[in-house]
Amino acid sequence: MSQLLGIIQRLKTMQETNENGEVQQRLFEMNGKTLCQVKYFPSTGAFELEVYDTDSKANKFQFDDMDIAAIEIFDLLQEERDPSK
């Protein structure tokens, strides 16, 4: 649960650090592997989650709800931690 709270805190910080209207971005990594990049667009209030697969291809998903974006990131981290699930 604390990992999920950490993700939410990082996303909240992205929302709060948009005084100049610039797009904020963060990488989420585990074991030295970049799993995804998250961008926050202050003009729309949306998060864009770019998920990297094993072939270094990226799939992009947009969320207007921070909690849903956090759950998606949490799931990615859990899959990397325990790939058998």
TrEMBL record:
Origin superkingdom: Bacteria
Organism: Falsibacillus pallidus
Protein name: Uncharacterized protein YkuJ
InterPro entries cross-referenced by the UniProt entry: YkuJ-like, YkuJ-like_sf
